[in-house]
Amino acid sequence: MTALLEVCVADAYSLEAAIEGGADRIELCSALELGGLTPSSGLMRLAAQAPIPVYAMVRPRAGDFVFSVREGELMLADIEAVGGAGLAGVVLGASLPDGRLDEALLARLRGQARELGSTLHRAFDLVPDRHAALETAIALGFERILTSGGALTASAGLGELVRLHRAAGGRIGIMPGSGLTPANIAALLAALPVVEVHSSCSAAGEPWSADAIRLGFAVGGRRQTQVEMVRAFRAAISSV
């Protein structure tokens, strides 16, 4: 079976490119350069018109995933907004100070999501015991875990991804992500028989204006999902 391709996007251009290129599902966020934050209500409404499922990131700020009570309340409200916009699901994660999953907060967030689909994001890669966290994610009812196997990239974490996939035993999806490209996805899938993979399928876009960078409105270069990259990724997946 050909693996499903989830493409993470953070703007309208990338959303359109992902759909045109043949993505099977969208992870919608803002500030992809920060690992992804909750998207705007306008972008969610636009994405709700997509012909494929869209899951929205629910993350109120950059940094770690140790959230305060107030931040937890913001996340509950954002989940309500995701459902109100008509999207298919949410992407969640929360940690305790020692890196373990914040099971209490995640249970509240999952309860708020109700009938929405749910992905546990790479807060999972920070846990001290990934196999214990796997069981927690299963107990909480997540559909899948987005993970690099605790490494910087999914290719580097392949051994751990294989172990997690075996331990999951079909009870939850293991979706590799981070650093995956059309050039390396076939090798990963040859060793790891997962049913879905995650990538931004992005390349450098038009540079930000010098004045925007000078005044602190932009940092670094712009990256956007490219139609050709999505198509190449799909072709690489189909070749496995």
From TrEMBL:
Localisation per UniProt entry:
Cytoplasm
Q: Does the keyword Cytoplasm apply?
A: yes
Pfam families given in the database record: CutC
Q: Which SUPFAM superfamilies match?
A: CutC-like
**Superkingdom of origin organism:** Bacteria
| InterPro entries in the cross-refs | CutC-like, CutC-like_dom_sf
Alphabetically ordered keywords of this record: Cytoplasm
Could you say which protein family the record assigns here? Belongs to the CutC family.
**The protein, known as:** PF03932 family protein CutC
Please give the organism.
Answer: Labrys neptuniae
Q: What is the lineage of its organism?
A: Bacteria, Pseudomonadati, Pseudomonadota, Alphaproteobacteria, Hyphomicrobiales
